[in-house]
Amino acid sequence: MTTAADLMNPGAQWIPATESLDRAAQLMRELDVGALPVSDPNERLCGIITDRDIVVRCVAAGRDPGKTTAGDLCEGTPRWISSVAGVDDVLAEMESHQIRRLPVIDENKRLVGMISEADLARTLTDDQLAEFVERVYA
Predict the structure, then answer these.
(1) Among the listed residues 133, 110, 104, the one whose alpha carbon sits nearest the alpha carbon of residue 120
(2) pLDDT at residue 138 is higher than 80
(3) If you average pLDDT over every residue of the chain, what do you get?
(4) Strand order of the sheet with strand 111-116?
(5) Contact 73, 61 (CB under 8 A)
(6) What percent of the chain stands above pLDDT 70?
(7) What are the CBS domain coordinates in residue numbering (predicted)?
(8) Is residue 77 a contact partner of residue 30, using CB atoms and an 8 Å limit?
(9) Is 125 left (phi over 0), alpha (psi -120 to 50) or beta?
(10) Which CATH fold would you assign to the domain 4-136?
(11) Rg (the chain; Cα; Å)
């Protein structure tokens, strides 16, 4: 059975909720990613920020990315999946919440990776991928 651990891009990194968006953007550039999971002081997932969040919700809104924190942009309940969850569970989670990136958490509730659309495209059949795209972008 294919699991979330098989699908994910390993080595995802947190950014603390207290870190500035300047630093978040720098880390995204260094890691060549468009999204970062945000952690609370106990290294628990409290949200995800994207490069688009930084541009639209901070810079374009006239806020200072040097003074705005990653935690300031986190909204709602963050979604995640267990590393041992099957591919059907991964797809169901992403489709039902219409999300394109999903943090993968191990049995100790620690971040071990991220699943993105590109990861799915490498693994899913054409039919599975088409169904995913239709549901997420509907």
Answers:
(1) 133
(2) no
(3) 92
(4) 9-10, 111-116, 101-105, 81-82
(5) no
(6) 100
(7) 8-65, 73-131
(8) no
(9) beta
(10) CBS-domain (3.10.580)
(11) 15
| Encoded tokens for 107 | 């049995």
Question: Rounded mean pLDDT of 63-83?
Answer: 93
What is the structure's pLDDT at 97?
Answer: 92
Q: Which two tokens stand for residue 134?
A: 């239709």
Partnered with residue 10 across adjacent β-strands are 113
Our separate counts of H helices and E strands in the chain read 7, 7
Q: What are the residue ranges spanned by the domains of the chain?
A: 4-136
Residue 78: alpha-carbon gap to chain centroid: 9
As a residue count, the chain comes to: 138
Question: What burial class does residue 29 get, using C-beta atoms within 10 Å of its C-beta: 0-12 exposed, 13-18 middle, 19+ buried?
Answer: exposed
For the cut 80, the answer to whether the pLDDT of residue 119 exceeds it is yes
Q: How confident is the model at residue 35 (pLDDT cuts 50, 70, 90)?
A: very high
pLDDT of residue 38: 95
Long-range contacts of 30-37 (CB under 8 A, 24+ apart): 33/114, 35/101, 35/114, 35/116, 36/70, 37/12, 37/13, 37/78, 37/103, 37/111, 37/114
